[in-house]
Amino acid sequence: MERVQQIVHKGKAIVFTDLSGLTDSDTQIALLNQARELICAQPPASARSLIDYTGIRYNIPAVEAQKQFSTAVGPHLKASAVVGITGMLQVVYRSVVRITRRNIKIFDDLESAKDWLAEQ
Fold it and tell me: What is the pTM for the complete model shown?
């Protein structure tokens, strides 16, 4: 399965970025760049984004890439959700949300996140 793809859930298109289990920041950054291209190709305030961070390892370059991603895609997003935000990653993610001033909903599982995005 592709790690960045457009899926359809309950009739709504969602850009799904699967970063789960990744320990290599270069791969994380490359996938975020792919997702950014896909999202930014959509009209303003129309895209739905879901990112799975379950079990990733992160470092400063990966966090910086996430900030840049969030800033770039913000104008194109209608709704954004993430899963797998636990432990220290919660602290990092809160700082990204604060810096980018985006409303990103955190979920415990993919199905709940997809259901919520489909309602938006």
Answer: 0.90
Distance between CA atoms of residues 79 and 60, nearest Å: 26
C-alpha dist (Å) from residue 61 to 9, 26, 29, 44, 57: 32, 8, 8, 27, 11
How many Å apart are CA 67 and CA 100, to the nearest integer? 7
Given this model, what pLDDT does residue 20 score?
96
Helix (H) or strand (E) holding 80: strand 77-83
- CA distance linking residue 54 with residue 84, whole number of Å: 4
Structural domain boundaries in the chain: 4-119
For domain 4-119, the CATH superfamily is STAS domain (3.30.750.24)
